[in-house]
Amino acid sequence: FVFTTGAMEGDPGEREKEIQAGENGESKDSEAESDVEEEVEEEVEEDVEEEDKPLEFTIQLNDIYGESASLDLGDYHLIQPAITLQIYKRKIFTKDQGAELIPQYIMLRLSDFTKDNSELDMKHISSISFIFDQTEKGLIFLDNIGLVDN
Questions:
Q1: Tens digit of pLDDT for each residue in 95-135?
Q2: HSE-CB for 68 with a 13 A CA cutoff
Q3: Burial class (CB within 10 angstroms; exposed 0-12, middle 13-18, buried 19+) of 89
Q4: DSSP state letters, the chain
Q5: What is the structure's pLDDT at 147?
Q6: pLDDT < 50 stretches in the chain
Q7: Are strands 99-100 and 83-84 parallel, antiparallel or unpaired?
Q8: For the sheet containing 68-72, what is the strand order?
Q9: What pLDDT score does 52 carry?
Q10: What is the pTM of this model?
């Protein structure tokens, strides 16, 4: 079982706020300079320890017979937080500096899933679930999900 993943910068609710702002006709560029200064100060004061924690979640395979098996990704690989770029200019001039997305290639042995449940039929997998139950909050991207022969 393989996939590519990585951490992204931001809080999970930010995308929803962006969508709502767009529906209301609000523009991110129309913020007053004083609001930008306050936002920059708040970002500096964020708790760095929480941002430095690796992201963890559970991966579950299900077969057509109703059997399932799961693995905690943290037992195999820790997804490191995104590398935040810090350019010391006023945010009004830098327009969303963001963070560097670093793809991490993950390969898990299918035999490890059968250790969790020997009844799981690997030839008849019906679904793969990513269950975000190990880390309180965070953003990740997933890509190139697949099953491969060893």
A1: 655 666 778 899 998 889 999 999 999 899 999 999 988 88
A2: 13
A3: exposed
A4: -EEEEEEESS-TTHHHHHHHHHHTT--GGG--HHHHHHHHHHHHTS-HHHHTSPB--EEEEEETTS-EEEEEGGGT--BPPPEE----S-HHHHS---EE---EEEE--HHHHHHH-TT--GGGEEEEEEE--SSSS-EEEEEEEE----
A5: 79
A6: 28-41, 43-48
A7: antiparallel
A8: 68-72, 58-63, 125-131
A9: 67
A10: 0.64
- The CA-based angle 76-48-71, given to 5 degrees, is 15
Tell which residue, 122, 126, 131, 128, has the closest CA to residue 150.
122
C-alpha distances in angstroms, 121 versus 31, 54, 62? 55, 31, 9
**How many Å apart are CA 58 and CA 35, to the nearest integer?**
39
